[in-house]
């Protein structure tokens, strides 16, 4: 399981979870019945056709308000880093964000030490907008946060090859 691994959860807000804890979180997501006005979330898991088991978990979150902004993020099992899976999922989520949901801007937020995630977001077309120094206290230490972003006009230009 992906979230049982310390190296996967290193830059996340939670500690590693066993199978039962992960199932409880997923069940809560699936059975979310409370009305969240203007709040939308798409979760995507990655499985390979040639083997069983989840190798990644990604999301697109946005609010339907005047700002038209969203956020993407995800986690990928380290054995599958460097194969383009994260970039492929991010690009699919960005297509949804801009082409289907008509968002204006999408951000990705990363722990400043998480160079693999930053690199995947860059390859997906996002650029660094901010590097916040020691702005969050996570798992007993102050951490930096890197904010990556792309606007719809940049996404459209990227797709046109501009």
Short description:
The protein contains five helices and six strands, in the order ααβββαβαββα. It is α+β, with helices and mostly antiparallel strands and 162 residues long.
Secondary structure topology:
Blueprint: H1 6-9, H2 19-30, E1 39-47, E2 54-63, E3 69-76, H3 85-100, E4 105-111, H4 115-123, E5 127-138, E6 141-151, H5 152-160
Parallel strand pairs: 3-4
Antiparallel strand pairs: 1-2, 2-3, 4-6, 5-6
**DSSP, total strands:** 6
Roughly what percent helix? 25-40%
- SSE-based structural type: alpha+beta
Calculate the terminal CA-CA distance, rounded to whole Å: 40 Å
| Count, helices | 5
Q: How would you sum up the major sheet?
A: 6 strands, mixed
Strand order of the largest sheet: 1-2-3-4-6-5
List SSEs in N-to-C order: HHEEEHEHEEH
Radius of gyration: 16 Å
Sequence stretches where pLDDT stays below 50 over 5 or more residues: none
Round the mean pLDDT to the nearest integer and report it: 84
Kindly estimate the percentage of residues that lie in beta strands according to DSSP. Answer: 35-45%
